């Protein structure tokens, strides 16, 4: 499984990705809105990488894609996809090294994965949700074409507090409309 963009390779995880995964997932700002707690030790990252590498993107459940920057071959983030049992819809999430944020890498990686899900695999819908305080993730979802579908107040208990969740969805017809007209929102 390999997806390429002008600046990125989106691929399966490899054992040598553990140090980079540990580094960016150990950043408290990166972990703030995520389900894990920083720091992520090198041993824990190695276990995660082994688990991610063993996944099957064509089977129901979560599959984590590694996002590699072509220029230096370094892991800079990951995109997770949870394929539903019906194989027609999925949930999506993403994490990016803070040193690479703000340069369009996350949008580029997410678009590559969405293209694969909709164009090659024929999914009907992709959903995403994020903590309402995570405005950067919400903006990214909207930039790549997701529509805001709702807000669940005080829905998730995360790291000792109740948080609001923002809900997003993207239908295949909308994706095709965006990509067929070359009107995909700019990064």
How does this model look, in words?
- By secondary structure, the chain is α+β, with helices and mostly antiparallel strands.
- It has a single domain, classed as Aminopeptidase.
- The chain is built from 6 helices and 8 strands.
- Helix 1 (18-25) crosses helix 3.
- The longest helix is centred in the middle third of the chain and has 16 residues, at 105-120.
- The chain starts with a strand and ends in a 7-residue tail after the last helix.
- 32% of the residues are buried.
- The model is unreliable at 183-187 (pLDDT under 50).
Set down the secondary structure blueprint.
Layout: E1 2-4, E2 8-11, H1 18-25, H2 28-31, H3 42-53, E3 61-69, E4 74-83, E5 89-96, H4 105-120, E6 125-131, H5 135-143, E7 147-158, E8 161-171, H6 172-180
Parallel strand pairs: 5-6
Antiparallel strand pairs: 1-2, 2-3, 3-4, 4-5, 6-8, 7-8
Pfam family, one: Acetyltransf_3
Organism: Streptomyces doudnae
Protein name: GNAT family N-acetyltransferase
Feature tags:
187 residues, alpha+beta, Aminopeptidase, eight-stranded mixed β-sheet, 6 helices, 31% helix, 34% strand, disordered C terminus, Acyl_CoA_acyltransferase, GNAT_dom
- The chain-level structural class is alpha+beta
Indicate the CATH class. Answer: Alpha Beta
Tally of strands:
8
The percentage of residues in β strands lies in: 25-35%
The outline comes out as globular
CATH T-level fold name: Aminopeptidase
Low-pLDDT runs of 5+ residues are 183-187
Written as H for each helix and E for each strand, in order along the chain, the element string is EEHHHEEEHEHEEH
Mean pLDDT: 95
Number of helices: 6
The CATH architecture comes to 3-Layer(aba) Sandwich
Let me know the CATH homologous superfamily. Gcn5-related N-acetyltransferase (GNAT)
Number of separate structural domains? 1
Q: Describe the strand arrangement of the main beta sheet, using strand numbers.
A: 1-2-3-4-5-6-8-7
What fraction, in percent, of the residue positions are helical?
25-40%
Distance between the termini: 25 Å
Q: How would a textbook summarize the main sheet?
A: 8 strands, mixed
